[in-house]
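Continued from yesterday's entry.
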Amino acid sequence: MGEASEGIKMMAAKSQEQVMALVDKLIATARPSAVYGEPVKSGNYTVITASEVTAAGGFGLGSGSYTGPMSPPLEAKETKNEGRPPQPGQEGEGGGGGGGGGGAFTGRPVAVITIGPAGVEVQPVVDPTKMALAFFTALGAMFMMWGRMRKASRG
């Protein structure tokens, strides 16, 4: 029993270290240099790109243990073999563990900032793929609602 418990504790400590390392990376993505590109100078003009940076993560841990014979739950007494206590002389033990995590980082340009003799100009970066996906998603939703409204009016 002691070995399983120590194993779970060691795994939890390792997972905690990994989580902290990932959190440090997430915090690093929020710095200004991750959002604004290096200024590019050409003559009287300076161009800076602005990006959208997104980070997401998820983590989970598990554990378990068992020490000895158990009595069946009240509702399981009459079922097959589930929940029945061990036979006399049987000893219980324990163990368990588990853990996991994951994350994702994405970035995309959203604007170009131009600084020149006439002043500062901000031009958005248009993503035609996202616009087309949004258009077709909205169109599909409208047709679905139209179909439901038509079915409801008939019936």
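--- second protein ---
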Amino acid sequence: MRRTTVVLLAPLLAVAVLSGCGAGSAKSSAAGKSQSSKDGLPAVSGSYGSKPTFTFPTPTAPAGLKSQVLREGTGPVVQKGDLLVADYLGQVWGGKVFDNSYDRKTVAGFVIGKGKVITGWDDVLVGAKAGSRVLMSLPPDKGYGATGNSQAGIKGTDSLVFVVDIVASYAGKVAGDPKAVVQKISPSGVTVAGPLGGLPTVAVAKGTAAPKAPAVTLLAKGSGAAVTAGLIVVQYVATTFDGKAAGSTFTDGAPAAVPVSAGGNGTPFDAVKGLPLGSRLLLTVPGTNGQQAVAVAVDLIAQPKTAAETG
């Protein structure tokens, strides 16, 4: 759950914090099997991967940060600085659901433990295991603070409750396929170098014409599944067509989670649909809204499934 709008690939992508999907009234009775909770936390319906509902024991949230692991996963431990991939639902205590990924039927990705998300998430989710379902209640100072979040309808006095189904986490060192099969050289004027499975570099020759439309060049073909609509995990290095650095996940210390839309009207990453995971590619994007055109070396790392699909 991000604090603010975050640019995932400067200057290409700006992804909104909250979509508003799943908004509605609190439910007083849980559908399906309910898991009882402790420390004044609400009971939670359903199992890992299913959209939860809460039964609140009192009108007022318990004091301080409270959390409970409702299901202990058996996967790797989430480390500080990882890209956390999860399904989640957030609700004002006793009030409305302000966001959830279950209705969108795609996971979300957040850098965890580095102040990129609300404090309560950093405090609770670092150290949890993939495959876990985690319940937490956050006082305002562990959520959006005294200012709240007007976009989500959260007041500065609201306590928040979340269920988070942790699907996976990715460390900063994850890379593409070192055995990917080289396909072709970069387009004229743009050079991508560096070892497969390692750090790429991007150079744009002086005077190279900027692209007029987004384009993808497959540089090395991986052996993974073909990318479909949904969220993908990537590593990238970006350079403007006037030779300036424009962002790098390797510098940031964590891979990025970027959306690929079904209709092709979302982001430049929509052009990677059908390419195999593990591949390295060159993405060139024209300048828009005062931003320079960019050339981006991208390694396609993974396309995580939802918690329901992973079980």
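Confidence is low (pLDDT under 50) at residues 3-32. The first strand starts at residue 6 and ends at 9. Will compare against the first tomorrow.
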